[in-house]
Description:
It is a single chain. This protein folds into three domains: 2-67, 2-Layer Sandwich (Uridine Diphospho-n-acetylenolpyruvylglucosamine Reductase, domain 2); 72-184, Uridine Diphospho-n-acetylenolpyruvylglucosamine Reductase, domain 3, CATH 3.30.465.10; 232-334, UDP-N-acetylenolpyruvoylglucosamine reductase, C-terminal domain (Uridine Diphospho-n-acetylenolpyruvylglucosamine Reductase, domain 1, Alpha-Beta Complex), CATH 3.90.78. The mean pLDDT is 93. The strands form six sheets. It has a five-stranded antiparallel β-sheet with strand order 6-7-12-10-11. The chain has a four-stranded mixed β-sheet with strand order 1-2-5-3. A four-stranded antiparallel β-sheet has the order 13-19-18-17, with helices on one face. It is built from ten helices and 20 strands. It is α+β, with helices and mostly antiparallel strands.
Amino acid sequence: MEENKILTSLNTFGIACYAKYFVEIFSVNEIIQLQKKSQFTELPHYILGGGSNILFTGNYDGLIIKVSIKGKEIIKETDEHIFLKIGAGENWHELVAYAINNGWGGVENLSLIPGQVGAAPVQNIGAYGVEVKDVFEELEAINLKTLNTEIFDRKACKFGYRDSVFKKEAKGKYIITAVVLKLNKKHRINAGYGAISKTLNEMGVANPSIADVSRAVIQIRQSKLPDPKKTGNGGSFFKNPVISDAAYQALQANYPDIPGHPVDGQVKLAAAWLIDQCGWKGKRLGNVGVHENQALVLVNYGNGTGTEIKDLATKIMKDVSQKFSIDLEPEINIL
């Protein structure tokens, strides 16, 4: 247990802030032992993964719990699938590379997404037409009240767009310790979303493998997104809004070029396009700003505070609401 822990290197925005108490856990037993400590029972706590989906707006007057449980294990195998159990503290992109190297498909479109495996189902991470729920089998989590390990299958997780039960009624009540993914031996290439097909063509790949798709996704992401090791950011700051088809057609009447993607009878808009239309792409306000290549990404150019980034996000949300009557919702957790 550490006191007054600086968190600058533990959040990808690079915000300089402190936690009153900090502990890193490497096993289920350490979680159980943690429950006996007054820092846990008497103070608020926050469970931290890779720090890529969090914006600290000040010091945290409680306990930060960093989950670093590692391990990868095949727990079941069929002719078509591998059921891989992964420790919550494993790096997500390293897991994707591990799966591809072993010839297991399903996560290649999710290459280069920052963060840890345990956070993937919380956020139901997704990119380029794939979400983690598409390969999700179940997860193990410690109930912080009973200290029992509970199993959550896909239904119990209540997955939604960048959403799950762990962001709603189960928020703060569990620590995810392991995730089981159902990966494919027989590959189903998904290259029809976004710029993947175009990038593969530019790479001269006619019949892509899962490794080819991964390379294309990495190339696209690196061309659009800043490296958090060089420029502080948390990836996509806002969710892409989902509206009714009627509302989309009404917007099209005024904005014929507005992009939309059909989703379960509704239409998902591109938040980046909306932000760009409001003139925010590439705009800088002091130490913070909007990335020049991707309007969804808010960046810390150095010495920026979480409050500055939050204020920037608020201004963007206000402008989009006034211009399009659409309320953007942050994808980032703001503390």
